[in-house]
Amino acid sequence: MSNADRQGRRGTTVEANGVNPVPDTERRGKPRDLFAVWFAWNISILGVSYGIYVFGLGLNVWQTIVAGIIGYLASATLVGILAVGGPRTGLPTLTQTRFAFGIKGNRIPAFFAYLSNMGWKVTIVTLASSSGAHLFAKLWPSVFARSDGSSTTPALVLWFVVVLAVTMTVAVLGHQLIMRLEVWISWVTGVMTLAFLGFVLPKIEWSHLGEARAGGALEFVGGIIMAMTLVGLGFLNYGGDFARYLPRETRARGVIGWTVAGLSTPVVIMLVVGALLVGGDPKLGSAAAADPIGALTALLPMWFFVPFSIVIVISLVSAAITGMYSSGLALMAVGVPLARSVTTAINATIIAAGAFYLEFVSTSFLATFESFLSLIAVMMGTMGAIQLVDFVRQRRMGWNTDMANPRGHGGRNGRWTAITSLVVGTVLGLGLVTSSDPNFAKITGFLLTPSARAGVFGSSGLGIVIAMAIGAALYTFLTFGLHLDPKPDHSLATGTGAARGAGQAVADLNEH
Hints:
There is one protein chain. By secondary structure, the chain is mainly alpha-helical. Helices cover 67% and strands 0% of the residues. It is built from 23 helices and no strands. It starts with a helix and ends with a helix. The relative contact order is 0.18.
């Protein structure tokens, strides 16, 4: 069998690896392969609304563009650095965090990362389904549209089933098929998005771009932080998931560079367009903020609206696929003793239930759920910062994957230094962020004055970055300042267990 045949066959069979280190014999690819998966994940006209959100902090157009670009590049770089752990250990990110937190201690951040991932997948699947149904309502209004022009329930159900089926199938088959598909999705969505920009840019009121007043230093910093929280910080938990099949000796510079390029390029372009739109036409900006897909596709002629709507669905499904794949790994990292394909199927069922409720039952669920997810971002950002610091320790220990094993077999049940740093950073972070949901507001903002809660500090997410800094600083002090850095524990290992390192059997970690 030729190498091409083997590659094609691997892409259509279920991936066997779960949260175990990927064996060196299965490593393949180059760092540039990472560009497509991150680009396809983030190329969407939803990015236009991000520029509108940053502008809404009180910045002018040019401040919005500069602050957004800085924030995107900074957060994407953090994701790229964490992605380096993939080829060095062969582990997904939420398993590699066991090095810092211990196998049982890691269940806390891994569980919240799992909830965050699942929540966004519910939102994405719902949005993809409603976009497809809206297209059908436009094309065949007598069948799929109500009297007010909105989509009928059969149209929504049809697209809901199709989107979920495609997402689940590709996610279950796994890494190689995802990487191959994302290349084509990147090309298709990239070309169509450029064409979309050709229709949108003439709509910008260029003569009015200078009318907005410039914001102050706090607003500008707030814009940077908001950009970071809108995009990059949400991917800190998945950086290594798609890089772990790269050869162990892959250069860190390539992993970081291609991750940053793939993640930031599409959102930077969309941010600029969003800033120009809202700066030239506040009414259009407000409409896009409330309904980005509906408001922006309304600018298109019908002949282009049809293929572009299909591309919108494809881009959303692409994001759902990669997210569902990572959520399967996250559930395993929590400690569920099932194969990755099974956990992915479980996640698909949960996502289906959540999306069905969001699409067909709830009228107010989305706002509450997004508030909940923003609170989870406090813990996830803090966990990512601690993991970045722990990379120094992991590198000194030769990226020894035994540290992801249970106590006595190289790892620890828990490391109080990391857990304490996570708790302290998270609590302080919750006290410095705000929530629009009245119930979640009771556990947030308790360290802010009323004016701070209502101002840029509360709305920009500055508390998330402060939580990251505090968690990382405390962990640095405990680990390197006080030298509270226990070595791998092999007290219960037998035979050659203490020396297996990255070559241990696939089943070892999949059972934990």
